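Appendix B, Record 12. Input sequence as logged:
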Amino acid sequence: MGVGAKGESGASQSIEGDTSAAVDGIANYGPGFKPPSMHELRTWILKAEVKDINVMMEEHKKAWKQYGCLIMSDGWTDGKSRVLINFLVNSPAGTCVVDEIGEDNVVQVITNNASNYVNAGSRLMEKRKKLYWTPCAAHCIDLMLEDIGKLKVYDQTLSLSRQVVKFIYGHCWVLSMMRSFTKNSELLRPAVTRFATAYLTLQSLYKQKQPLQAMFSSEKWASSSWARKVEGVKARATVLFDPKFWPNVAFCIKSTIPLVSVLREVD
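Logged structural output:
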């Protein structure tokens, strides 16, 4: 959510790197390695890690004073519907979560574009004259894609495409058949937001137009039990016989792909 996702991505990459180094170290040690005990992990090993983090933070703090820094928010809702927000500080030294930064070091505060954040950002600039609040570019574009998706032609086209993709990916036999016709090319294109994902999947669907039409026209499909099920009949009708579906897919892609491309660049 917002630019803060970049901090989460950097943290996950750091964890992956540390895990890889640990596994390599264990492998190099060979048979007979004894892992540290729970007592060691929560005493001297933990203290050593805290010391290393504090040393690293000193380097970050030097960069804040030298270059200035940005505060970014990264929010999500947990399984109990509680809204949680991480505040991260970014500078050329990297991104980390902090408690206190110092107003003189902060150049900019970046959040998403929800109305409560807009209000908080305006109040912040009134109180802190040195700070600038900026809405997250990725979230702004995502909201634009969401609003575009509510227009009739987009809504109908996305709805039909989701039905086709859901049917194919929801049944192993159909998915295997699709992959044999598309030469293992996928239709689903996960992206940073669900709206970007919808339009990227639309692109993939259009690229595989001919293989999909060939699949639903094949004898193998006609002789399968799926050809007589309601979902299969609807998917086949959309791909083969709906005169508006493919032209509308092409229109939706052409009109939104510039926004999707920018979204992928800025997030």
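The chain has two domains: 4-28+35-135, 144-266.
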